[in-house]
Amino acid sequence: MDTRLNQVIQYVKSLLMSETTGHDFHHALRVMNNAVQISKNMEIDLDIVKVAALTHDLIDQKVTRDITKSLTDVEKTLSKIGYTVNEVETVIYIIKNISYSKGNIPDSLEGKIVQDADRLEALGAIGIARTFAFGGKNNRMIYNPDIKDNSDSISHFYDKLLKLKDLMNTKEAKKIAEKRTAYMVEFLNRFYLEWEGKDV
After folding, report:
1. How buried is 122 (Cβ within 10 angstroms: 0-12 exposed, 13-18 middle, 19+ buried)?
2. Which of 13, 17, 62, 111 registers the highest number of CB atoms within 10 A of its CB?
């Protein structure tokens, strides 16, 4: 493994190993692996993709209380590891522009790949697990049909998750997203069946 990349992995691990909202170190690794998978046969800077995938949550408000400080820390750490000014700027641009809540689409193919890779993590079995982990950490109920303010975890499927398959940038990500979304729909159907006691 590239020495610089290994140092980035250790850096991210030191910050996210104990994270409990679903934005942990293993999530960062899976996003990197997703990015590598969906970028096969594409002419891209794979090093930039890997580093951006690994560090993308370090400046997320769900993970840090001080985004400005965390951003500076990422910049300084990557520079210290040996990434050039241009490489650091490229990574920072990507991780500042892939968030679903911001509604941005990165200009570069590398950025689009990392955005897709992160969004794939919100789908399928992993996506389901992360949804309830995040909900529990933030005191959200699993489901309350009597409340219409979308504050429970099941509502999040409709507010965001089921929409992601139509927002993918790359062909490979779209294919994976279709499969994972179908699994989530199956889960929801089963959830309501059990919620209403119709499975017994």
Report:
1. buried
2. 111
CATH code assigned to 3-195: 1.10.3210.50
Q: Is 0.70 surpassed by the pTM of this model?
A: yes
> In the chain, where are the structural domains located?
3-195
Pairwise CA distance, residues 195 & 29, whole Å: 34
Name the DSSP class of 24: S
User: What single letter denotes the amino acid at residue 99?
Assistant: S
User: In the predicted model, what is the mean pLDDT of residues 66-84?
Assistant: 95
For residues 101 and 155, the answer to whether their CB atoms sit within 8 Å is: no
The answer to whether 124 and 183 are in contact (CB under 8 A) is yes
Report the greatest alpha carbon distance in the chain: 61
Q: What is the 3-state secondary structure (H, E, C) of 38-55?
A: HCCCCCCCHHHHHHHHHH
Q: Judge whether residue 181 has pLDDT over 90.
A: yes
Those residues with Cβ within 8 angstroms of residue 37's Cβ, 6 or more apart along the chain or in another chain: 172
Q: How far apart are CA 174 and CA 15, in angstroms?
A: 31
